[in-house]
Amino acid sequence: SMRTSVSSALGGSPTAAQLASGGVGTYRDFNGSTINWPIPQTASVNFVASIISAGGTLVYARTTLAVPSNMGWLNGNTGTRTTNFSTGNASFEALLGIQEDVMIAESSRYNIFSAGTPTQAQMQTAKKSFMANLGSVVGNINNTSTTDGTTALSAVQKKALVKAQQQPSLR
User: Fold this and answer.
1) What is the distance between the terminal CA atoms of the chain, rounded to a whole angstrom?
2) pLDDT tens sequence across 69-87
3) How many CB atoms lie within 10 A of CB 89?
4) What is the reported pTM?
């Protein structure tokens, strides 16, 4: 399971059971029900766990894209990007940075609706900006990232990792 992979990548501590009891792999929906993570998120965490287990690393430099006004809930309702993820593992922290930067790019794209119905031209411009922002996220996955300590992540792997962070409706 994903929790076992994460535990193994982290040297067995925390255990898979501790990760489960801590809620890793689930979230609460708007009704308060516990829901499993979406498959792309689980696969991404498994992928990063496999990188760590094989002696590799995921290295990412955060983008500088401004947090849009429709993300006031971000980072404890401060509306600011998270500057320090505290997982205890740099590769998992890099994945969280990628996830947040993709969320910022997505929300920036759809922020144009906050002022009413945008024109077709505005939507096309927003989509182009979104695609450029995703390109920046992919480009910020450092070339020192490796799958096993030696083999660099390929361009295809980097793009897939970023694409997996998108909301399903945006693919």
Assistant:
1) 26
2) 889 888 888 888 888 888 8
3) 17
4) 0.90
